[in-house]
What does this fold into?
Amino acid sequence: MGGPPCQGFLSAGLRRPSDRQNSLVAAFAAIVCNVRPPAFVFENVEGFLTGDDGSHVEDLLRPVIVAGYRVHLRKINAANYGVPQHRKRVLAIGGLGFDPGFPDVTHSAFGVPGARVQGPHLSPTGTVESAIGDLPLPSESMSGVPQAHFVGDVGSERVARIRTLLPGQTMKDLPEWQWHVSFRRRSNRRVMDGTPSERRGGAPGGLRRLHPDEPSKAITAGAVGEFAHPSLDRFLTLRECARLQTFPDVFEFLGSRTEQSHLIGNAFPSRLAEVIAKGLIRVLATVRPRDMAGDLLTFLPTLSNGMSPVLRRVT
It folds into this structure.
């Protein structure tokens, strides 16, 4: 199992086609081909599919299929597997000479456009309130209980912004005089680029008050400075972020606050990992070696009905 570093593809950051870390996709495939495990799991962000016009998809698939792996590659939303968070990722699961299967969705998602496409008949996934609502008030020092459940001083200006937001609102819903300078800069750039005034405001990130009755947006390393609590005028604690990533409270995160936020925000949700692992264990316990050629069994690169021109070319 592996998730080669994805910073070269991540849409939230700088897309760097020449990023040397991108080559670790090919390195992962080479390791699979050399070690020849019965099965492998590969994970990456959405941008993996379209980065460098899809060349990294070929970097992964071409060698492992030639080596005899039968592969499913799909984009998924963690919310469809019981994670209280909309976290879209790309998964590839391969079996050496056999169909490794792909885990069926266990929950329906809601709260964002198109979320109900998969598993609309299933029980809804958890919400922010169900994930963090039973936590006590956080500590003001790093010695919070449970571990990492603490808040620091964020300043009166940021608190004032949070107080203005209703659940589900973001920075662009604030009056312009409350916009952060970087957000104002993005807004002005869009206007100069000819963006219609009703679409001004840059990306809807920067600051967001989570809605208690919906799954969270994707937790990142910056969530503790961007995601506000649904009802309290403060940002999320590290432990609340860990809860939304489905880490049990017995997990402890070491290092500085920044280091802990990266450990949590960059992690793969524990509950989703468990679903994938248990499904693969069941297959491996019953499968018989077969002399079947490698193949791409399924390729589902989107959770919606539409495709961008780049994604259509890749497909």
Summary: The first strand starts at residue 39 and ends at 45. The CA atoms of residues 229 and 236 lie 5 Å apart. Confidence is low (pLDDT under 50) at residues 197-204.
